[in-house]
């Protein structure tokens, strides 16, 4: 079902050996509302996909992220309950501002911190309703899905570059996409 339903993007391009490894290590977890998945500033440890349910992403704009991470693992957090189901006051107060709610099935998140060694989470994530998540541990992600996600991000960056170029103004998306595959990223020293 993982391959047939294309639950994870890029999985169709995996070699059989890596697909088998991914299927052996992948976890399905049902989580209750208000379960903390990770905190902003933590080192990323897993890649997640929503099968059903919803996850809220919070962002702390403060420069003191370490305080946020410490609070996320305190007894105060685990004993806290929202005063109002919709507002989730205690979460927005401590975890920062609600950035977005991910609720579409097959929505992937958590990969950005896994793309660089020791990468940290840019947001905090909390389950906002009972949800079933597909979880891929970092070690498995690195040998199976990392390359596909890195290529996807690189392709998107190239397309954004072309959209910003005046010479490409008026091009159709299909043309921009095709040309973006031919672009090569190079850095040159100044004044060359």
TrEMBL record:
Alphabetical list of PROSITE patterns matching this protein: CNMP_BINDING_3 (PS50042)
Ranges for domain Cyclic nucleotide-binding: 10-145
Domain of life: Eukaryota
Coiled coil (residue ranges): none
Name listed for the protein in its UniProt record: Cyclic nucleotide-binding domain-containing protein
Origin species: Florenciella parvula
């Amino acid at each position: 079902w993982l391959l047939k339903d294309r639950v994870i993007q890029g999985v169709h391009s995996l070699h059989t050996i890596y697909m088998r490894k991914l299927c052996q290590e992948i976890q399905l977890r049902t989580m209750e509302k208000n379960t903390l998945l990770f905190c902003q500033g933590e080192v990323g440890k897993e890649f997640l996909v929503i099968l059903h349910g919803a996850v809220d992403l919070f962002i702390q704009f403060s420069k003191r992220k370490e305080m946020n991470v410490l609070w996320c693992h305190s007894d105060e957090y685990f004993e806290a309950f929202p005063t109002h189901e919709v507002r989730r006051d205690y979460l927005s107060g401590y975890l920062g501002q609600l950035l977005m709610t991910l609720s579409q099935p097959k929505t992937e998140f958590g990969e950005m911190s896994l793309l660089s060694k020791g990468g940290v989470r840019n947001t905090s994530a909390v389950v906002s309703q009972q949800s079933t998540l597909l979880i891929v541990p970092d070690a498995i992600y690195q040998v199976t899905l990392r390359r596909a996600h890195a290529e996807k991000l690189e392709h998107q960056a190239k397309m954004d570059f072309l959209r910003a170029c005046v010479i490409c103004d008026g091009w159709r998306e299909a043309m921009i996409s095709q040309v973006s595959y031919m672009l090569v990223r190079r850095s040159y020293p100044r004044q060359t």
